[in-house]
Amino acid sequence: MSNRRKLIRTTFLSALLTVTLSGCAAALVGATAVGISAATDTRSVGTQIDDQTIEVRVITALKNDDRMDDSRVQVVSFNRSVLLLGQVTNSSLRELASHIVRNTKGVDRVHNELQVAPVISFGQISKDTYITSKIKAKFVANDKIKVSDIKVVTENGEVALMGLVDRDIAQLAIDIARNINGVTRVIDAFE
């Protein structure tokens, strides 16, 4: 069979399977995206799974503690280091959050950047999302930075950067983030 006929046959079978399994198509696309993300990440797949598990454990523990009800806490785990961003009503809740993270299985380090302040508005959350997208776009435009190596999280104008990168790349990323309009502070959580 010629190469062209093989290509046409393979394409036809792929299209047929896609139509036949249309309910599974979204799952296939999602699984492919996760696979690509996992393949380009500097962490091992095991560490990526550990980080996801840590995040779920910490978020669950925080949500199950009634004292944290009036708080907004973002939890990000990267290479078993946990970053806490957000707002709590008093310093004892800030310490409670650190305590919960430290006592979570698998956590090696805690970056507690929680602020004792009122919970931010939806408008500020939208601005933070925009800031994060501007920073990532600048990273993409820079040929020295591999975007998949750096996690960017913005909360109330404060940008936290996490990842496993050389110190020169970390400093470059910090400088880029620092010069984005709307950024009030850059948190260096690199390893």
TrEMBL record:
SMART domains: BON. Keywords: Lipoprotein, Signal. InterPro entries: BON_dom, Lipoprotein_DolP, Transpt-assoc_nodulatn_dom_bac. Residues 50-118, 127-191 form the BON domain. Residues 1-25 form the signal peptide. Pfam families: BON. NCBIfam families: PRK11023.1. This is Divisome-associated lipoprotein YraP. The gene is yraP.
